[in-house]
Write a structure and sequence with these properties.
Elements (H helix, E strand, L loop, with lengths): L2 H28 L5 H22 L7 H26 L5 H8 L3 H12 L5 H24 L4 H24 L3 H5 L2 H24 L8 H29 L1 H4 L2 H16 L6 H22 L1
Helix pairs in contact: 1-4, 1-10, 1-12, 2-3, 2-9, 2-10, 3-7, 3-9, 4-12, 5-7, 6-7, 6-13
């Protein structure tokens, strides 16, 4: 890989990893008096407007045609409606670090969907690494189940939300491999996807919980700003570009590093208590994903 190409990959990779590592704990702070879907709506409404402003500043046309708008709507539904509604709800029942570790398995549904859609082969080494990672995740969830101060059934609910959110995010990832995604201007397509997603979130929130609710607490408002601008406007174009340049497998190395940092943050901020079972599970999850990713790269 040329030095220019390497420079154009390393910095985006570092930014995505560091910013997304912080978003898990910020999402945790968003849970409270504001209904979840309204918080998700605010995040992507602000992100969509900011992305459109960024597109205009760069002279990128926001006209993407009928097919482009349909693709943006599907992407917005998968990524900015289903994925994030389930992520936020998963964090109501699991610590942010554990949900982040769960999302480290993103490459597994990515590979399953890529095999279904694009017939990309899956190696035995990848399957073995994925099995090791899933064993580690299971050990961490057993720790959560034993240590739960709430009804343990809610831990299982958090796991269910994580699984659905994971497959929703994976669907959005795999969509980036389609020809139409490569033809559309990235910034314009994401701007429309975020705004359409915000609109769907608003409709769902209004029907299920009533009119908009906002919390004037400073940390809540700053959290919306961080998640929208840093956690969405900055990172999604960089990450989707990494997928298109490196492939979903190599880009997913961020999914290995993010939970490690997120777990450290969770330990400091949420008081996550490590046990031998949890530590061994986290280690297995990371080792398994490294094995799977190296196999995918090969």
């Amino acid at each position: 890989m040329a030095d220019d190409d390497r420079g154009g990959i390393v910095l985006p990779f570092i930014l995505v990893t560091l910013i997304w590592s912080s978003t898990w704990i910020v999402i945790r702070d968003q849970l409270g008096s504001v209904p979840t879907s309204w918080s998700v709506c605010y995040r992507f409404a602000l992100a969509g407007v900011a992305m459109m402003a960024f597109a205009r500043m760069r002279g990128v046309s926001l006209r993407i045609g009928g097919a482009g708008m349909l693709f943006a709507a599907l992407l917005g539904t998968a990524q900015f409606v289903l994925n994030f509604n389930f992520v936020y709800r998963a964090e109501e029942h699991l610590t942010s670090g554990v949900v982040a570790v769960f999302y480290a398995m993103l490459l597994i549904p990515n590979s399953i969907l890529a095999w279904i859609v694009f017939r990309q082969p899956v190696s035995r080494a990848f399957i073995a690494g994925s099995a090791v990672a899933m064993t580690g995740i299971a050990m961490m969830l057993v720790h959560e189940y034993r240590a739960a101060s709430v009804d343990p059934d809610k831990i299982l609910l958090g796991v269910g939300f994580s699984v659905i959110g994971l497959f929703s995010a994976s669907a959005a990832n795999v969509m980036q491999g389609m020809d139409i995604a490569r033809r559309l201007p990235m910034v314009a397509m994401l701007a429309w996807a975020m705004l359409i997603g915000a609109g769907i979130n608003a409709l769902f929130a209004w029907v299920t919980t009533g009119p908009p609710v906002i919390e004037p607490r400073l940390t809540y408002l700053l959290g919306i700003g961080w998640l929208a601008l840093a956690g969405s406007v900055v990172t999604f174009p960089l990450y989707f570009r990494l997928i298109q340049r490196l492939g979903a497998g190599r880009a997913a190395y961020t999914a290995v590093l993010i939970p490690v940092i997120a777990m450290l943050i969770s330990t400091l901020v949420e008081g996550y208590r490590w046990t031998g079972l949890a530590a061994a599970g986290a280690l297995l999850a990371v080792v398994g994903m490294v094995i799977a990713l190296r196999a995918k790269k090969a």
